[in-house]
TrEMBL record:
It comes from Sphingomonas montanisoli. This is Acylphosphatase. Its EC number is 3.6.1.7. Residues 7-94 form the Acylphosphatase-like domain. It holds the Pfam family Acylphosphatase. The keyword Hydrolase applies.
Amino acid sequence: MTADRIARRIAVHGKVQGVCFRAWTIEQATAIGGIDGWVRNRMDGSVEALAAGPTDKVEALIAKLHEGSPASRVDRVEVEDTPGIVGPGFVQKPTV
């Protein structure tokens, strides 16, 4: 990643499954624009995302994930750096 482009792996914990959180995350990433990556449910009940793009845009998405979708309840968000090798666009991946 270049200095103005970052990649973050994000884990969102709380009531984030069964409340359209993944679809909402895709809508948020698309609305912000310029973010590549994916979102998926985890078997432990959390939602995981990988977001890569300009620093300000990735940070804006992370801020949205802290807020959560209207029907969700976000208890905790974990963020870590990652190499961020992803294809173009922001998509939903299968549960792991």
